[in-house]
Each structure stands twice: as structure tokens, then as C-alpha cells.
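A quick aside before the break. I want you to see a complete sequence-to-structure record at least once, exactly as it would be stored in a machine-readable document. Don't worry about memorizing anything.
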Amino acid sequence: MKTIAKLSVASLVIITLLFSCKKADESLGEKTADYAVTDSTMVSSSAAVEKKDSKQKFIRTADLKFKVKNVAQSTYAIENTVQKFGGFVSYTNLQSTIQDQIKTKVSQDSTLETTKYSVENNITLRVPNTQLDTVIKTIAKQIDFLDSRTITADDVSLKLLTNQLTQKRNSTSAKRVEKAIDAKGKKINDIIEAENTLASQKEANDNSLINSLSLDDQINFSTITLQIYQNETIKQEITASEKDNDSYKPNLGIQIIDSLKNGWYILEAVFVFFLNLWPFILIGIGSFFLYKKYIKK
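That is the input. The structure line, written in C-alpha cells, reads:
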């Protein structure tokens, strides 16, 4: 009986310990999830999103600067994310900048080349307005350290209304001018002036239409500007060393032969030089004999 009682107590203690450990794991998991959500929402958008029936129209933009572990890999991941949610990349500039370069000679024919460089990429994304929050939260998985985040929502409802009223007003005015041109078909000066007025009104109407289309595009597709970078990277590689000029000098025997050849060439050049002076030599010899024969006597 005592043995059974001891076993029962031991079993109860073990069950209690297992239950406590499970409870602690669940609590720890909840805390970890909370931290993950906090880290994710740190870059999520709280900017206004218009409701379906709302008359308000927002242009939403986001600017982020953050560090990643590998710029190239994060760039590919971001591009795939944007494509997945119906957006596109309008600009990307991935480049490496060399900070320092050191060459160390490790042997007679080998050099260790150490290069310190930084990699960064400036990216401009266009994503559907309804997918902005989702895209930003997905991009947040690439963040190793967040430098800054700016998200704006500009209400352009009044601008759109202004463009619509301007188009309507210009259309009405253009119709009246066209009727006036048809009515005054005999006066050339009046027709020319009316035509110029009509052209100006149509141009203003076209500009309002283009402006409205531009606003609609910015409303439907939000713009995300990213500046990503990584820690300074060091690359080392062994390259072949450049040989000194002394290494390419010929041996002594070849230098002696070359010297003899050069001396013979110099002698030939001197001989040819004096041959070119034969008229002067001839005049000199003649003058010497004349001097000796006549002037000296």
C-alpha cells in the first residue's frame, strides 16, 4: 500500500511539472508573438485608406531606409513581392562603392588584394493602393535595422473636383465659341480671334484632363521609395604579381652581343655622316693646297 501511495504521489508531481512547463512554453510563445507583431507593425502603414463609398481620395506614399543582410538577395525578394501583389518596379539602382583597397605581396609572384566596399540600392515601387500595407509588412521581413520610415496620405478630393469643374466650364465655353464662329462667318479678324480663344480653351481642358488622369494613377497605385544597404563587406583574393622591369633584362652574353652590334651601327652612322660632307672636305683640301702653293710663298 505504501509503495502504491508513493507511486501515486510521484505520478501527480510529474503531471504537475509537465503541465507547468507547457504553460510556461505557451506564455513564452505568446510573448514572442507579441514581439514579432510589434516588430512587423513598426513599418506598417497607419495612413488613411478611403472606404469604398467614401468621396475622399488619397495619394499614399511610403519612404523607408533600412539595413539588410544582403542587398542583392533582399532586392530580388522585394521585386518578387511587388510582382506578387500586382505592382511593378519603376526604378532601381544597385551599386557597390569601394571604400578601400589594399595590395599585400605574399610571395614573389602572388599578391593578396583586400577590397572593402559597401553595397546599396535605391528602389522605387508602384503598388496598388489597397495592397500598400500588405507589401510594406512583407518587405519588413528583410529589415535587419530600420533607420527611418515615412508614410503620407494626401487627400486630393478637392483637386479632382476642381479639375472636373474646370473641364465642364471649358467645354461649355468652347461650345459657345464654336457657335459664335458659325454665326459670324464673314468677319475674318473675328474668326481668327475666336479660333485662338477656342484653341486656348481646348488646351486648358486637355491639361485639366491630363492632371486628373495623373491624380487617378497616383491614387490607384501608391509609391514606395526604398533605400537599402548592408554592412561594409571585405573581399580578399590572391592575384598574380606584376614583375619588375629588372626581371625582363637579358643575360650578360646577349648584352655584349647587342653592344657590339650597336657599336658597329654607330660606326656606320659616323662613316655615312662624313660621306655626306664630301663637298666640304674637297673644298678644304683644295684650299689647303692653294694656301701652301701660293699664299705661303
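Two observations worth writing down. The longest strand covers residues 110-128. The radius of gyration is 45 Å. We'll return to this after the break.
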